[in-house]
Amino acid sequence: MRDSRETFVNHAFVAGSPVGHSRSPLIHRHWLNAFGLAGDYSKLEISPDDFPAFMETLHNGTSGFCGGNITIPHKETACRLSDRPDELCLELGAANTLWFEGGEIQATNTDGFGFAANLDQQAPGWDKQETAVVLGAGGASRAIIQAVRDRGFKSIRVVNRTLDKARELADRFGEKVSAHPLEALGEVITGAGLFINTTSLGMKGASAPQIDFSPLSAGAIVTDIVYVPLLTPFLQQAEKQGFKTVDGLGMLLHQAAPGFEKWFGKQPVVDAELRQIIIDDMDRHG
Ligand code: ATR
How far apart (Å, rounded) are the C-alpha atoms in residues 137 and 115? Predict the structure, then answer.
């Protein structure tokens, strides 16, 4: 793909700190191989102090990259320092994907797309539901609230241990979004068709509270953005209680697709082979 200075560049990056755990190179190298494309994708460990200078190399065309992903803790700075952040990332205040167009750094946030595309694949029709409950009000929660709202949900109930953070999101994302304390969870899930855990509860063997999902509507879907382990405590509980569940690994895979298309010009697929590559890596490295 050609960059703003019309030089041939086919090397993308993920920039973060720490970035060592990132599985993005596995995903993009798999797709590069699948298309038979010459190209690469590298991890860049960049400290917050050094990140603005890195953005400057993207601006002045000396970076040697055609674009890349941005991860913690640079998503906010990347949104601020890019030339053309789109509406999605402006509303979130955070960018995770950068590319060049018309000599400018374009920025978007594909986390919400990844969330919705995973459900489209694993639970088609999920967006016919009207009410969603989002557990958690951190960084990951925002993109999910945005995606669920943009797919037409009428009511999005954000439940969080720290009520003020849920309130801040309700203010940010408009009248369909309401804020609730954790203690109200039982009442808040009544009649909802979609339950999403966006907290770290249950991650890597950590315990998670028992939730009685029975007040959800019949046919409700329970999903978790935690994907280590794949079958999280919340998903286990929901399955036992007879609800359809969707694990969070697909969100990671799907959020990568728009960037690949921008950088390398091909639309990649998220299939069982790619999923297995990541599962094997998780088995090896945890
Ligand atoms: P991320 O960017 O991954 O969403 P984060 O911004 O640290 O991470 O947010 C973590 C979320 O998990 C928050 O909603 C947090 O609740 P608080 O806002 O009250 O801190 C939630 N969380 C983490 N540990 C929790 C626990 N033990 N019980 C309840 N909620 C928890």
Answer: 16
Which residue among 74, 145, 161, 204 is best mutated to probe the pocket of ligand 1, counting the most ligand atoms within 8 A of its Cβ? 161
Class of domain 5-109+251-285 (CATH, top level): alpha beta
Q: What's domain 113-247's superfamily in CATH?
A: NAD(P)-binding Rossmann-like Domain (3.40.50.720)
Q: pLDDT tens digits, residue range 83-118?
A: 999 999 999 999 999 999 999 999 999 999 999 999
pTM here is 0.95
State the closest ligand 1 atom to the C-alpha of 165, by its place in the atom list counted from 1: 18
**Is residue 176 flagged as an active site residue?**
no
Tens of pLDDT, residues 218-228: 999 999 999 99
Give residue 188's Cα distance to chain centre.
24
- What spacing in Å lies between the alpha carbon of 67 and ligand 1's midpoint? 30
Q: Which letter does DSSP use for residue 201 in this model?
A: T
Pocket of ligand 1 (CB under 6 A): 136-141, 160-162, 165, 198-201
Domain ranges of the chain: 5-109+251-285, 113-247
Alpha carbon 32 to chain centroid distance? 21
Handedness of CA 49, 258, 108, 137 (dihedral sign): negative
Say whether 113-247 and 5-109+251-285 share the same fold: yes
